[in-house]
Amino acid sequence: MFKSIYKYLTDIFNGARTLLTGMKVTGYYFFHPKEIITQQYPENRDTLKMFDMFRGEVVLIHDENNEHKCTGCSACELACPNGTIEIISDKAIDPETGKSKKVIDTFVYHLQMCTMCNLCILACPTDAIKMAQTFEHAVFDRSELTKVLNRPGSKIMAGIKE
Amino acid sequence: MSNIFSLISDKDSKGTSSATETQEYFVNMGPQHPSTHGVLRLLLTLDGEIIRKVEPHIGYIHRSIEKMCEKDSYQQIVHLTDRMDYLSCHMNNEAVCLAVEKGLQLEVPDRVKFIRTIISELTRLSSHQLWWGVMGMDLGAITTFLYGFRDREQITDIFEETCGARLTMNYNVPGGVMFDIHPNFQKRTKDFLKYFKEKLPEYDELLTGNVIFVERTKDIGYLSKEDAISFGVTGPSGRASGFACDVRKKDPYSAYDRVDFKEIIRTDCDSFGRYKVRIAEMYESLHIIEQLIDNIPEGDFKAKTKAVIKLPPGEYYQRVETARGELGVYVISDNKKSPYRVKFRSPGFSNLFALDTMAKGYKIADLVAMMSTLDLVIPDIDR
User: How far apart are CA B123 and CA B92, in angstroms?
Assistant: First the structure.
């Protein structure tokens, strides 16, 4: 009888001790607020920089003359596992040689289907596309997620061949 | 503490017996339940609050990944496996890549093996950190969740910098890895090792010794070694039942044959044993990374493969140890650019079906602890 009461009391004492051990850890962080790593997200938007490798969305690289490197070869379209990329190509006459040449009309990118697997970037023979570091993709309407990547009036850079 | 309850019940039992007619009844746990960690429905047969039978009903997030593999090229399959067991995505990718490399009889460079092993172990650590946080939260301790995620953030930063994504990384390609490691990778990983070695004892202080936690897990959810083997329970859950099933030891792949680590085996067979195995595995993972991080050999990060991979006709099987257990990838090729059939032997599926044997006779509140220590990831079960 005494033994069981003794055990009961030591159990209570030990139980309280283990709880206090845990509270020692939480108490430490309570009194050391500098070690807390929480970021105030929408407020720190200006200083928040993603890593260079971060895969946010596919973009077509344009230079300052509004020229890109896409030849319309559809390698990215074939490499994509989800049908995210759709290239609608057109024929244009090369002013130098006078021959007709394949150029892109619209580079359609369905962001809603993209899994950011990076296979299109690896497949591109001319390094025309890359992954951008944007991450705020929320929109109010689903149709806004279908994007046209080539800018209006843009044309292919000189000297890029398939 | 149980003694005082027995004292009280002894006194009570001297009174009149209160035996009444009881009836078994059914309760649906899930599909939407915080402790099922996804859409899993458990049909429980209960007698009061004692569990008589657990019947898992699965298929709520079945996405037919195995069927989708049949139309994809071998490079495209890899990213689908990210979506199975998302917490050990790198190991899933590695399993597919190793199977394809086996078919091509391709020897990958040493650098690739080292990078793959380091990132696998980092993935295992991040998975166990998340499991530890969620395990505490399932049993009512929200503190652990925040602490687990605090440390996991350091690993996801490493992944983001080197692999380009935090969770579904898709860093492996057949023949190697997608890009070379980032120049900061080694420094950042070493910083993390130093940081986490200081923080890991906090896990023990917060949860392992806690009297409420111990009372709720010790001697709960008994799974004998024989049952573990017959159900195919692998990973930390199987090793807590004394079943030596670590693929890293039994069938070494990548750089695991070059590192020294212990296979953690306990014979507790209960929820607390499964918890302790995972905590000990975190120390082992740190130990493995420590041995490799300074010795990454120079060389290519990818062996040369053809743009269109065609495996020679035949059957290929490769197994790896994910954070949950043994993942097997079985590929049948008929010399086309996509496989004829792909079958995944996922650890979560086998582990889940041991739940009925484990839970029989215990209280319904204990089931939450048991599911937590099995570390179920539902997309892994359904695929």
Answer: 11
